[in-house]
Amino acid sequence: MATMQRLQTTGLELFYAKGYYDTSVDDILKKLELSKGAFYYHFDSKEDFFIQIIQNLLARKIYSTLIEPIEGHDNPLTLITKCFDDAMETAVHNELDYGCILSNFLTEFNGKNEVIMRHLNEIVTVWEVNLVTALQKGKFNGYLDRHVDCEAAATFLMSSYFGVRTLMTSAAPSAKKYRFMSQLRQYFKSIESKVIS
Amino acid sequence: MATMQRLQTTGLELFYAKGYYDTSVDDILKKLELSKGAFYYHFDSKEDFFIQIIQNLLARKIYSTLIEPIEGHDNPLTLITKCFDDAMETAVHNELDYGCILSNFLTEFNGKNEVIMRHLNEIVTVWEVNLVTALQKGKFNGYLDRHVDCEAAATFLMSSYFGVRTLMTSAAPSAKKYRFMSQLRQYFKSIESKVIS
DNA sequence: GGTAAATCCGACCATATGGTCTGTATATAG
DNA sequence: CTATATACAGACCATATGGTCGGATTTACC
Prior knowledge:
Two copies of one chain form a homodimer.
Chain A: H1 3-18, H2 25-32, H3 36-42, H4 46-67, H5 76-93, H6 101-109, H7 114-140, H8 150-168, H9 173-191
Helix pairs in contact in A: 1-2, 1-4, 4-7, 5-9, 6-7, 7-8
Chain A binds a DNA duplex through helix 3.
């Protein structure tokens, strides 16, 4: 793999595990047995490096795990349930889970780096838009009750997912997942179509 | 106010705003016009300093905003609704909101500092226990449906609150709050007692 | 093979950080 | 009045960090 790719991949790994500010460029270079010269040949600065990681790796990761799985013409509540379940199951099986990567970075950069925040918020917006669209389509197709506020539901879903991923890192991730999913289904039952088919 | 108190208060402010690792001891001392001598006379290290802040300030803050308001014999769903509403309203009116302070620190220290994580998780546990207790009492008093899994509901509530506070920092906090609260009520309606009184 | 561009090395620099240590002013007690 | 503990000042230190720079090495191309 090309050096630039390796740097970004390892960079994301370490930034996710230790945070941006607590991960030095040297940490990344040491792990890859590369030198300062290699890094600053490919990237202007640590910030530039991270922004490229966001666009090249993080955005795709979020898309493939949280957005793409909910696209389709099936019941969005079913799709979202499976999507969250899968994402959380991956986290459970991960030896060292550090929570939702997007949520973590949002927390870390909030109020500290506006440029990076803009890039992160863009991903959040994409996720939100896709969730709202999926829910609206579901409403149109008769899966959701016609009184459901899709924007509100999307906000609620994003919130709960961000939060549970944070909570899962503390203790008993598997139990947390199970409990969360049971109440998510409870919530979904309350917004699904009331028409007896 | 005594120097030790001022250090802790200002320390928490800055740690909350900029994060623990991105806030230097000098930052705090500069803001208070104090010297290194003053700091290391009162505290053994930066870590010891932070742990004392957790116990003296953070724990009380969480207790007064998230735990104490839900104690009582009224409908816990009503109490929790008002509690979350108040907490989020405070955040909305706060010029610079950085999310839920407890959630932020959990994210920052996860996988990095086990000692601090233990202290933070203790606070989380206290919150969880109180939530579960309040819900169980509510079930006993006929406010909640008797099939409700109170542990699961507590996990769901904590998750959603952590998450929405993170989301609120990104954009349109007031709208996010409104949307979140509407769906929280929706969820609560689905777990409240079905008995027609 | 020669040349030039691309890629990488690693010494070096300015600055920042957590922490130490000596000194000093004030207060309190005998 | 003296002595001792408290409370703070600030110079100092070892280390770490982001970033620079001249040079070496490899690759691509004619």
